[in-house]
Amino acid sequence: MFSNRTFNIVVPLISVVLGLLAGALIMLAFGYNPVAGYAAMWNGAFGDAYFLGETVRQVTPYVLSGLAVAFAMRAGLLNIGVEGQVIVGWLAAVWVGTAFGMPPVVHVIVALLAAAVAGSLWGFVPGLLKAKLGVHEVIVTIMMNYIALYLSNSIIRSLMTDGSDRTDNVAETASLAAPWLREITFFSRIHYGFVVALLMAFTMWFVLNKTTRGFELRAVGSNPFASEYSGMKVGRNIIIAMVISGGFAGLAGAMEGLGTFQYASVSSGFTNIGFDGIAVALLGANTAIGVVLAAILFGTLKIGALNMPTEAGVPTELVDIVIALIILFVASGYIIRWAFLKFSKEGK
Amino acid sequence: MDYVIEMLNIRKEFPGIVANDDITLQVQKGEIHALLGENGAGKSTLMNVLFGLYKPEKGSIKVNGKEVNIEDPNVANELGIGMVHQHFMLVDTFTVTENIVLGSEPSKAGTVDIKAAEKEVQALSEKYGLNVDATAKIRDISVGMQQRVEILKTLYRGAEILILDEPTAVLTPQEIKELIQIMQDLVKEGKSIILITHKLKEIMQVCDKCTIIRKGKGIGTVDVNETNPTELASLMVGREVNFKTDKTPGSPTETALSIKDLRVKDSRGVEMVKGLNLDVRKGEILGIAGVDGNGQTELVEALTGLKKSSSGQVSLNNNSIYNLEPRKVTEAGVAHIPQDRHKHGLLLDFPIGENMVLQNYYMEPNSKNGILNFKKIYEKARSLIKEYDVRTPDEYTKARALSGGNQQKAIIAREVDRSPDLLIAAQPTRGLDVGAIEFIHSKLIEERDKQRAVLLVSFELDEIMNVSDRIAVMFDGQIIAEVKPEETDEQELGLLMAGRKSEKRGEA
Ligand SMILES: Nc1ncnc2c1ncn2[C@@H]1O[C@H](COP(=O)(O)OP(=O)(O)OP(=O)(O)O)[C@@H](O)[C@H]1O
Ligand SMILES: [Mg+2]
Hints:
heterodimer, A: 348 residues, mainly alpha, 15 helices, globular, B: 508 residues, alpha/beta, Rossmann fold, 3 domains, six-stranded mixed β-sheet, binds adenosine-5'-triphosphate, binds magnesium ion, ATP binding (chain B)
């Protein structure tokens, strides 16, 4: 009745609808008006140009962190370390942005590259350990997250500043700022990063589906034994997958460092961009286009939620619950799949 | 007449293909009923319908005379229907008992009572002479044992009717003998068995009735006592079938593959190939006969680069291929039809067309500068599918959706098409129908006639005897004898394979 492809579209859609419905029920249960709540969310995300600008800004790093998780997943790897790779990418971008003087355009490109390289390096380590010693990537990437966080804090404090909690702003030549876009969006923090994100989404699609490298990566993810039989180097592909995945993650960090904030600061906890990337990838079925759509949904929910307390009196925690419910429904997507099959069997 | 199972006028469609078209199957209590048909004829599909995995578009099913609606395998279980699938469904890291109780765990105070289950499983195993160790881990036991675990699983759930989908395809001749004994004991206890097999000998030996399917259509049911293999084969294929491969003698020339004092350890570090010496010449098919577990798997994996050897020399046309990586071995001119098609041979979730270029996707014309040329890849796949008669709706269908035999044909198409200097074929006809076997054998001989070297590893003595120009007997990691097929017989080979050096000829 349905092809696999249709399933990949229908199942997440249903999950989203179910998540929103469940959220509505919860709002009702706590005595809030769900219609007013969702209306406030809509206005908060798309209500005027400012909100639209902020939504785009929020979506940008989600696209990249989602791509990072999805890319590794396609090669059969669970990269929980996107969070740490985002942090080192952020730091590297800001370092290049503050410590060097370069011509415009060149400077920002070098800063972006530095972020990608830093993220790649952070992905390389778990990839290497997995390929050579068989250490499971989940364990190593989780540890690498903490190393990234505390290392970044200490570098900011003792190397990039004199004990201060935040760096200087990056040079204008290294900034992703888009003044004209900011102006037409009533000074939202929108920046050119979304172009980078879309470019990378295209890159991922192209690499995975059109190149021999992508063929190998997917093959290794699908059946490492058959891949080895056919002459592919399984270990090398694992490393490459982690390096590219880390590169995407590093760029996600650069979006914040060169775009949204223009600096890096000491932080007591994770950014969550990387962790949210896991949900984005899951919702997007690990495809490039799916990730872009899922990131848009996520960013919209996050930004729209900010408006819910002011306009409808719904606490932000409820929005987190709605998001969590959507993820839950996607994760249990196979139940929906099963129900569909059963339904279609009976229908015959 | 009382039937335990009646499947009447069943029709089942898949996108682009009618897998079952008006098939009727009636099984009596206490009989072994064979289901015969070419690869892709729809046997597994029909059984999956009976087991509740597929819902038929048309037709009805009666169990013990009552019409039933088998919605899912649980309903089938309740009706006393058990199935052992063509490809096993066991959890590798679980024990035998854990696998058997999975899904119907006996519980005591909310926890699984595994000790009680173990006792029960052991008792069942003894009752039917299955000889299974209830506490062993699946990954540590042989394929034959795993199959018995699958049989036990169905018995544990109270199956009265057992469906065995090509159980003998993966077994050694000895294991087949034991399985036949088990089946006969089961029917004595009043169970009924539906047996899918491509081996006509087995049907003649153990079955009472045989239902034949051709290209999805039911051809009819015959009494095994009143038929013979030739009739069965022609009913199945719809034309006369040639059993004995026509083979002109080969004209071998110089040595192609030369193996000297090769030693290989298995994954546990036990030496399995112990100083093996062997030559295969251009223009000859060398058959390796031997009982499973005497180092054949390790030998093939070492030759193809999947496993590192610990010492020795291997060369192909005077160039060393010793311990090269798989890709280097391939590029040196070796093709390999692997023993385990699902593990090594195919990317099941990739289209069959892309599976056809597994070893040369990176070469022109399949790709250029790292960019794949799907148009060329699928063009090639289309022509291979046609030439090798791989039955599939199209070249974009996932490999998983092909019938077992057609998956094998696709692999063979891919390997033979590269026209390698050395073709290593490990169990190449496992699970193939007689027509397809005939075809594969003629392909192997065709390769030989093109002056290629062919190394055939098979547990099937018939195959070894019919196809080989020279037979090497492998025992305990060494070649202990070499014989000519026309100068030996099954009996002598059997003795040699058991490790007894030939008395007639002395040391080879
Ligand atoms: N899940 C599926 N989706 C699409 N087509 C399928 C599916 N399963 C089987 N088919 C097709 O239905 C036909 C019958 O397949 P089936 O597996 O029943 O054959 P079979 O008789 O068991 O063959 P074999 O002896 O090779 O195992 C084949 O053409 C196969 O490609
Ligand atoms: Mg089958």
